[in-house]
Predict the 3D structure of the following.
Amino acid sequence: MLPEGRKEWQVRVFENRYPIFSSQAGSETYGIHEVIVETPDHEAVFHRMPVNDIALVMQAIRERMACHSLNRHLAALMAFRNQGLRGGASLSHPHTQLVGLSMIPPRLAEEADTFLSQAEHGSCPLCLDVSDPFIVVEEGSFRALSPSVPRFPREIWIAPVHHEPSFLNLTDVELDDLSALVKKVLGALSGFFDPFDYNIVFHTEPLGDESGTFHTHLEIVPRAEPLAGFEIGSGMMVNPAPALEAVAELRNVLIP
């Protein structure tokens, strides 16, 4: 609930008290680390918040990314949301984190290379035909889909229907669509997990990438079980829920 007499909550942004990176420019581990406080309600559940409030969080992420994109010492930006113990949340108050890195992290670099390689063959892995079996549902300018080889049970990605490399370029209307779809997908996923612990990671093109081949997207990763020795030791993931079965189950919930 909002404090009495207060009509509108404005998302708050703070420097992380325990940053991952050094704040000293020139350091090999230089970076920025911020906390985006989503709501004044300590007990709020993200997917039960009004779409307009979720959209305020999305706008804050976009604006902070835009601000830090001007920092010539940074090479990449990434926002993420940890929910629950298995999702790595250290604080229970609803919040998202934003980091800026002076290097491109390996997974983002691999993604950027894949998008570039596919573009050279005239395609994009996230520019899907409407009949693609891995699409779960669409909401305006965004669609939810399963990766063909999901790492975790019922892992879902959300991407613009039309090709857009950067999260920074999304309009307010597009962020409204995104917020509505995130709310729907999280609500549907919550019915399959108890407790519903998860991560959301925002992927946007590396700073300085002028190829235009990256396709910005969110990755929603349910965390039903902790990583075990095989996954940690091998770097290979064991997922007992086949992608197309998970897509069908989610469609049954989301599409009347």
In short: Residues 172-190 form the longest helix (19 residues).
